[in-house]
């Protein structure tokens, strides 16, 4: 989603308009970026969208683990294994 200039608000202004901004976020789905000293500081995002972002993050982590497991299985099949002594040395470092 593209941010419009009206979606970037100084935090000092947001304090006075919080309810209005929250209703706009929920109603239109437009995210708001609040700035502090001219730099991005925090964002207002619909809670349902935030839940969706967290679910995506969780799914991504699972895909990374599956990818790493696939690589490890390939190494085992190829005979690329460590002896228990070598593993102990690596873990001790």
Strand content: 15-25%
**Helix percentage:** 55-70%
The gross shape turns out to be elongated
Mean pLDDT figure: 92
- Neighbour order of strands in the largest sheet: 1-2-3
* Structural class by secondary-structure content: alpha+beta
Which consecutive residue ranges, at least 5 long each, have pLDDT under 50?
none
What's the helix count? 3
**Total domains, how many?**
2
| Order of SSEs | EHEEHH
Q: What can be said about the biggest beta sheet?
A: 3 strands, mixed
Counting DSSP E segments of at least 2 residues, the number of strands comes to 3
Distance between the termini: 46 Å
Report the radius of gyration as a whole number of Å: 23 Å
Which key features would you list for this structure?
alpha+beta, 93 residues, 15% strand, 3 helices, elongated, 2 domains, YefM-like fold
